[in-house]
Write a structure and sequence with these properties.
Number of strands: 8
Low-confidence stretches: none
Radius of gyration: 23 Å
Distance between the termini: 42 Å
Structural class: alpha+beta
Strand order of the largest sheet: 5-6-8-7
Shape: elongated
Length: 276
């Protein structure tokens, strides 16, 4: 899957030195592609100074040249963006444009994954958002009422009461304490059978990048942990979402235009760092 253009190659060895699984080695001052595991990370493509390397099963058009003016971000602005990010729970009654959604998902797609497995996928709740939201609320309500004296609710009376009330409040008064009336939700789905113990880390990293991208687009997100609990304990919800064997939802984020204006950042605890 690695192709090296001998007419362009200058034999600098950059591709070989960057190749972790040594799918490329130097022989007689020329790079040689070996018949062994390739992680498909494309580092060999990115590092070549003369554009002589190509991943034959990748879309070459997608690979863009580095440009300082459009690639580099001012570090002060970057840190302030991270500091100013808020979890949004008040949304305007306004749809998220497809172009903006595509950019957010693209930020997730380009997030690093363990061993470059790229096993993360996304379920966007849009047209079926209402149906799935009600299913989740009903499921949590039934969990609290019928299994409230068992784990996982036995040790948390607060959650038990919350789950009991959530569906009734929504059904009777339209108070949405699950998705907060957000117009859209994104489920970050990971494959634990492929990525193992790192799968949920892959999903969390993707969600973080997506949230920062959403912020730059004037949109807001919030992670919804209660929905994960619903999926874990409501088989009908798993089936409705089309989750496959070995898959799990790493996180769920709601998305929309904030109906609140923040004028300053927030405090955080002093950092706890140990240097050895």
């Amino acid at each position: 899957m690695i192709k090296i253009d001998e007419n362009k190659c200058i034999g600098c060895g950059s591709c070989a030195s960057e190749c972790l699984p040594t799918a490329i080695i130097m022989k007689d001052k020329k790079p040689v592609v070996r018949d062994r595991i390739c992680m498909k990370c494309s580092h060999c493509v990115s590092v070549c100074p003369v554009d002589a390397v190509e991943m034959t099963d990748h879309n070459k058009v997608e690979v863009v040249e580095y440009d300082k003016a459009t690639f580099d971000i001012d570090p002060v602005n970057m840190l302030n963006t991270i500091k100013f990010r808020r979890s949004i729970r008040h949304f305007k009654d306004k749809k998220v444009e497809k172009e903006k959604l595509d950019n957010i998902l693209e930020a997730g797609r380009y997030t690093p994954t363990a061993s470059n497995k790229q096993a993360t996928r996304y379920i966007v709740l849009d047209k079926e958002l209402e149906e799935i939201k009600v299913m989740a609320m009903k499921g949590l309500h039934n969990l609290a009422v019928n299994h409230g004296d068992e784990e996982p609710l036995k040790s948390s009376s607060v959650y038990k009461k919350k789950f009991e009330q959530m569906y009734d409040d929504y059904d009777e008064n339209g108070v949405d304490m699950l998705f907060y009336n957000a117009p859209m939700a994104i489920l970050v789905v990971v494959n634990e059978s492929q990525s193992g113990m790192f799968a949920r880390v892959d999903g969390a990293l993707a969600a973080s990048n997506m949230e920062l991208m959403a912020h730059t687009l004037g949109l807001g997100m919030c992670h919804v942990g209660f929905f994960l609990r619903a999926v874990d304990y409501v088989p009908e919800l798993q089936e409705k979402l089309g989750l496959k064997k070995g898959e799990a939802i790493a996180t769920t984020v709601i998305l929309g235009y904030p109906d609140v204006k923040y004028r300053r950042g927030a405090n955080r605890k002093a950092i706890n760092v140990t240097m050895k």
